[in-house]
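Posting this for the archive.
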Amino acid sequence: MGKGALLLTLILVRSTSLFASGAGASAAAFLKIDPAARPAALGGAFSSYSGDPNLISYNPAGIAWVEEPSASLAHSRYLEDINHEWLVYAQPYKKIGVSAIAVNFLTVGPMDGYDAADTPTDPVTSSDMALNIAHAAYMGFDSNPVFKEIGAGLNLKYIRERLDGDTAAAFAADLGVLVKPRVSGLNIGLAVQNLGSRVKFIDEGYSLPRRAKIGFALKRRLVGIQGFPSTLSGEAVFPHGEDAYLCAGLEQPVDKRVVLRLGWDNRRDIGSPFSFGLGLMLGSLTRRWKDIDLDIDYSYSNYGDLGNVHKFGLTARFGSDSINSGSFGTIYIQ
């Protein structure tokens, strides 16, 4: 394995990549990397949030609460010329829900190549790509004593991995449910990810990194900042063939335009398990573009002697009026 791919595996996913060998090897390890800056700053504990287009990669049910056409992109650069790009667009429709499309793209620059006898060869490059298409909707319950709203979502993926001249591909699906009970500020999320075909590379097949997760997000005033409640989130994640792990996040606005973020992920055994981040709510920058609201997000993670990872994101919401929240309607239960 090239040094760049090895570092990517060690630093980011702690799992066996497509190009490793042995029983239980999994493909498409890049799907375990947080693609967007906001969730990365929260330690990945994002599956119980709602209304953010980036939820297509965490819990597709959450995009049902996107109220305006929205686009989000992110960029990060890792060691050994590893670049990670993310782009998502979500479009709400009246009465039928919210659809979204996203591209997750990772490239590794020229790295040392080796043949089967471990003899050095010409440098090689590699890339990973996942195309996502999702749809979600939610339903309200007017008089139910337990549930206020319940949403469901489906995300379909085309996954392609390329190492120099060889290519492998697969299809997969994510399923998600998001529940808003009648507890003020509480969301409960459940998602199952990467259910799909095996990836066949040359003569061997590898399974996708399937996982299930359950979590919560609770919006409450936890610190003494008047009018700016915190959001506390936590998740238990159960990867197929690997140990379960926990992650948690805290998001705290300090005024109308600045949000501080802290995350924790107990998978990490290199560097610090904590991550940090910042969100800037810029709003409309000019009169000409008054119907476009912009947010800038940043996250920071430390991997000890292997260095730091900085992720930058930009989210734009188009239109000053809400089209729809993806609701099918309201059920009245007496």
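The chain is about 5% helix and 55% strand. Residues 1-24, 328-334 have pLDDT under 50 and may be disordered.
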